[in-house]
Amino acid sequence: MAKRLDEAFRFGPWGQAVLWLALVAVGICGRLWQPTYNVTPLAAVALAAGTVLSSRLAAAAVPLASVMLSNLALSPYDSPLMAVIVYAALAWPVLLGGLIRRQGWLAVLGGSLASSLVFFVVTNAAHWAMTQQYPHSPEGLLACFTAALPFYRWMPVGDLAWSLMVFGGLVAAARLLQQLSPTQLAPAVVQPQPQSERSTQSLD
Predict the structure, then answer these.
(1) CB neighbours (10 Å) of residue 191?
(2) In angstroms, rounded to a whole number, what is the distance separating the alpha carbons of residues 13 and 17?
(3) Based on the number of CB atoms within 10 Å of its own CB, is 143 exposed (0-12), middle (13-18) or buried (19 or more)?
(4) What is the Cα–Cα distance from 43 to 58, expressed in whole angstroms?
(5) Are 16 and 117 in contact (CB under 8 A)?
């Protein structure tokens, strides 16, 4: 297995389009089916999209499309601002794609854990700041984080498991495509004869 993932991922435009659809489908299905709170593939698909897709805009659209489409079957957010914060917290792992391509599997694991931690801190800090549920003081912020720990408990585990599965599937797909692609042999190029030489041969 390649240590640098840019050595493993060689997808053309059509391959990237198929991967985009596949990652969105995984994000939607995994979010609708959660074995426990916050165990979803959203961090994994964001990291994978940032790694394999050449367009940052297309990569960021993967987690955003997954959340927006799955939200059609889920409860809405408390406010539009909270929705924007959640979307941003889910999409930012796309920025780690370049690091993952250079560093390989260690960066996948680190990026997965960082995704979980940033989502926990950002969304709960926003909830503390935007609502009156907790006092707007350091003690209130600490109480907010403490109350959210049961929801965070399995999130890093889920993100790690999903990241390993998604990136393992991408590596397997890349190897399969390389095996199925026939080696193209360059045809021999026949150099045309100059006009003067053809005329001389016809007169002999």
Answers:
(1) 5
(2) 6
(3) middle
(4) 16
(5) no
- What is the chain's alpha carbon radius of gyration, rounded to the nearest angstrom? 25
Q: By 3-state DSSP, what share of the chain in percent is helix, strand and coil, each rounded to 5?
A: 75, 0, 25
Residue with tokens 């890349």: 174
Summarised one tens digit per residue, pLDDT across range 64-97 is 999 999 999 887 787 899 999 999 999 999 999 8
Q: Can you list the positions of beta strands (E) in 2-112?
A: none
The kind and range of the H/E element at 168 are helix 155-180
C-alpha span between 46 and 58 (Å, rounded): 11
Whether residue 63 contacts residue 94, with contact meaning beta carbons closer than 8 Å, is answered with: yes
Distance, CA of 27 to CA of 48 (rounded, Å): 11
Angle at 126 between CA 121 and CA 96, to 5 degrees: 45
Tokens, residue 39: 């165990």
Is 0.90 topped by the overall pTM? no
The answer to whether residues 85 and 48 touch, using CB atoms and an 8 Å cutoff, is: no
Length of the chain: 204
Q: What is the pLDDT of residues 186-203, one digit of tens each?
A: 444 444 555 555 444 444
Task: Yes or no: say if 110 and 101 are a contact pair by the CB < 8 Å rule.
Answer: no
